[in-house]
Amino acid sequence: MNTIRPIAIYLPQYHTIPENDQWWGKGFTEWHNVKRAKPQVINHYQPHIPVDNIYYNLRDPDVRQLQATIAKQHGIYGFCYYHYWFNGKRLLNFPIDEQLRTHRPAFPFCLAWANEDWTRAWDGASGEILINQTYNHSDDLDHIRFLCTVFQDPEYIRVDGKPVFIIYKPVFFPDIQKTLEIWREEAIRLGIGDLYLCYFENEIQKVDPQTLGFDAAIEFQPNWWNLPPLMSGEQVEILIKDAGEANNWNCKHKFFNYSELAELNILSGRQISFKRYRCVVPMWDNTARRMTDATIFLNATPENYAFWLQTVLHDFHPFSTQENFVFINAWNEWGEGNHLEPCKKWGYSYLEATKKALLTE
Fold first, then answer.
1. Taken in order 278, 64, 11, 346, is the CA torsion positive or negative?
2. Residues above pLDDT 70, as percent of the chain
3. What residues are paired with 9 via a beta bridge?
4. Residue 216 CA to its chain's centroid (Å)
5. What per-residue confidence (pLDDT) applies to 83?
6. pLDDT tens for residues 38-54?
């Protein structure tokens, strides 16, 4: 096995919480959206069904242990859990809290703050805000003090002893440099030491992260600012074969070719000179969430994913012995049709492709 540390991004939206019960009905989880999806054209892969029809519950410790075991067996170094913080209020925190409490699974992890407003994006109505995300330096202190309790866990992912923490969208901060300065100073004061701070490149593209006070940037895929051309109805018909009367080109779905996305981002990634970690997406089809205006990448197969991942691994030269991450988005974004986890159609093929690519490089 090579020295690359592959990190899979992990969504903790598969257990009930009181807020989801209130907003969407008792018992709501992401599985609610996943199960309702339907094919939009003939041969369109929807719904995405977990292998053996197991719609798991993350409150079950055996489920979390099995996820970590399978990930490790296929070369994944650790999980990057989405972290939800709203001025001290946390959501979907049960899985990480249990790992901190029980040290099970004993599997490396880090956190990425999903610092957006909490909206009805789970069911496609992203314009309706349920909890606002607000920023102030008093909360910066409260937040880092909480995070430092997490950073003490022996499984927390580090670079030269520095805990890795990721911000999803730094553009939302009124003064991101001041926030990062507060975090670093407080972490040192509390005995944690310096931090290794990164951000996902969403709205921020081709910017040296050090100019913003970060240690590194992380490519986020799909990169919505670097997409191939939309596919025409005729192109979709050719790709999926025999679409015939099932086509509904009056709908608002947007179809892209996955292979073209991979090639475009492989090329653009070679043109970046600053410290930036690469990211690969196995597939993408958010029909389950968006329903009438989904973004769908056709031609996403384990073979095409393997080509993208293996090329990225070949291109990547770690910045130092421990600055050796490659990110995979995602482990279990089932509502976005985007997962390494085994499903009924592909079985373990994506995980096997991951392992093979890592062993080959």
1. positive
2. 94
3. 80
4. 17
5. 98
6. 988 778 899 999 999 99
From residue 162, how far is each of 51, 123, 215, 303, 314 by CA, in Å?
37, 37, 11, 36, 26
Which CATH number is 5-360's, of 3.20.20.80, 1.10.150.20, 3.30.470.20, 3.40.30.10? 3.20.20.80
Longest dimension (CA), the chain: 66
Q: What is the predicted pLDDT for the residue at 241?
A: 63
Q: What is the pTM of this model?
A: 0.95
Structure tokens at 74: 């296929």
- In tens, the pLDDT along 150-202 reads 999 999 999 999 999 999 999 999 999 999 999 999 999 999 999 999 999 99
- Exposure on the CB side of residue 4, measured as CA atoms within 13 A: 28
How far apart, in whole angstroms, are the C-alpha atoms of residue 99 and residue 209? Answer: 31
Give the pair of three-digit tokens for residue 243: 């679409």
- Name 328's Cβ contacts closer than 8 Å, sequence gap at least 6: 6, 7, 8, 9, 76, 279, 280, 281, 282, 309, 340, 354
- Better pLDDT: 290 or 2: 290
SS3 assignment, position 198? strand
| Segments making up each domain of the chain, as ranges | 5-360
Q: Which residue has the higher pLDDT, 238 or 67?
A: 67
The residues with which 156 forms a beta bridge, in sequence order, are 109
CB atoms within 10 A of CB 199: 28
Question: Which amino acid, one-letter code, is at 131?
Answer: I
Helix, strand, coil % over all residues of the chain, rounded to 5: 35, 20, 40
Whether the Cβ atoms of residue 165 and residue 114 lie closer than 8 Å to each other: no
Tokens read off for 84: 């939800």
pLDDT in tens, 59-118: 999 999 999 999 999 999 999 999 999 999 999 999 999 999 999 999 999 999 999 998
Q: Return the closest-CA partner of residue 247 out of 257, 237, 232.
A: 237
Q: Name 128's Cβ contacts closer than 8 Å, sequence gap at least 6.
A: 119, 120
* Both tokens assigned to 289: 């969430």
The rounded distance, in Å, linking the Cα atoms of 47 and 49 is 6
